[in-house]
Amino acid sequence: MVDLSTEIAGIELRNPVIAAAGPPTKDGEAMVKAAAGGAGGLIAKTISIEAAAVPRPSMAALDRGEVLSYTTLALNSRLTRITKANTTIVRGMLNAELWSDIPYSQWLEKEYKIAKGTGLPLIASIGYTGEELSTIGPLVEEAGVDGIEFSLHYLGFDYRPILDTARALRDAVEVPIFAKVSPHIMNLTEFAKELERLGVNGIVAINSLGPCLHIDIETGKPVVGGEGGYGWLSGPAIKPLAVRCVADIARAVDIPVIGVGGITSGQDAVEHIMAGASAVQICTGAILEGPSIFGRVSREIGRFLEEHGYRSVDDIRGVALEHLPEEPLRTQAVPAYVDEDLCKACGLCVKPCIYGAVEGGTEEVKARIDRDKCYGCGLCITICPERAISFEAH
Ligand SMILES: Cc1cc2nc3c(=O)[nH]c(=O)nc-3n(C[C@H](O)[C@H](O)[C@H](O)COP(=O)(O)O)c2cc1C
């Protein structure tokens, strides 16, 4: 039996998959559903002194793909992902949702109470200025939340003035506080170190990326109704950025890092954890698939751990960090080769080889790599669904 439980700043989680601040935690009832769907913890939707006037339309799916059947997925499982057949697959989502449109008094009187009834750890999310944080922080603490996440989303690119807002919250409350950083903030590692120094208990990375613009070419209009037609990007498209931020922060600080961005499968979550995350959060995936995603992703993490001989989430936390080289790995080519026993002759590796080094790979003939032409770029290795291609030992 693998152990999925984890702990962040003294907060015990039954599993490391937390419902992120956003529509899946938009009120108490939504959080009850997230808990029933298998979440290990809850981050309530961000609240502020003024309830938000949310621009509409507020959400748009980008690059909506075909709903993939299990057959397609089985054939090519590393390029796509296994989801329920009726789930829309997107590369990303734009949103212009700001923060909660429910007045904070209602959160204090009603929504947090409903969420606390689930028995799961409940973390409030609050924003944005130092004054707002030091006013709302003590109120949500009094409402009995287990911790407070504070969003730095609308505070600009320069981290130095943002430190004052973190300090204002630290001085105002006793519960663990978590800084949720946005990818557009400059010098993330220095920022993370400063946050740790002033007593922040954990760092959540990342919020959505932007601002971004997507035009519906049939109407010539932007797809979301925010200022300038802008929205913020989330979902699978931002996962590599999120994982990089998690790794950078995890190497810089000793406090826990919570990874969020693009997680829709146990594999995605494992990647965040291997980059140093102690737990993960999901937002976009839970909007598209519904609250059952939390349990599914948690079970998939468990299956991965079991299949790879790990006993707990701790066993894989940060294992990738020692493999992140300070200098480029090497600049000489090491050719790739194909393990014939594993190659299914699907041909996926042939076309993308811009060096013309892959031969065969058709229905009958297994792929073969011409080592003189191979540039050692590695693309075919990442495309092969069977892991039949690897670099020659060197
Ligand atoms: C529609 C929508 C609303 C969101 N609202 C909030 C919010 O109120 N507070 C917050 O900190 N992050 C908010 N987020 C950001 C998510 O919590 C998350 O950090 C980001 O979307 C990346 O994760 P994902 O790819 O799993 O969605 C929102 C995201 C979306 C898509």
Number of domains: 2
Distance between the termini: 38 Å
Helicity level, as a percent range? 25-40%
What percentage of the residues does DSSP assign to strands (E)? 15-25%
Ligand set: flavin mononucleotide
Overall geometric form: globular
What does this structure look like?
With 394 residues, this protein is α/β, with parallel strands linked by helices. The chain folds into 2 domains: 6-322, Aldolase class I (TIM Barrel); 326-394, Alpha-Beta Plaits (2-Layer Sandwich). It has helices at 28-36, 70-75, 104-116, 130-142, 159-172, 188-197, 239-252, 266-274, 284-289, 292-307, 313-316, 379-383; strands at 6-8, 11-13, 17-19, 41-47, 59-62, 92-95, 122-126, 147-151, 177-181, 202-205, 209-212, 215-216, 221-222, 231-234, 257-260, 277-282, 336-338, 358-359, 368-369, 389-391. Helix 4 packs parallel to helix 5 and helix 6 (188-197) packs across helix 7. The longest helix is centred in the C-terminal third of the chain and has 16 residues, at 292-307. It is globular and about 65 Å long. Mean pLDDT is 92; it is low at 66-84. It binds flavin mononucleotide (FMN).
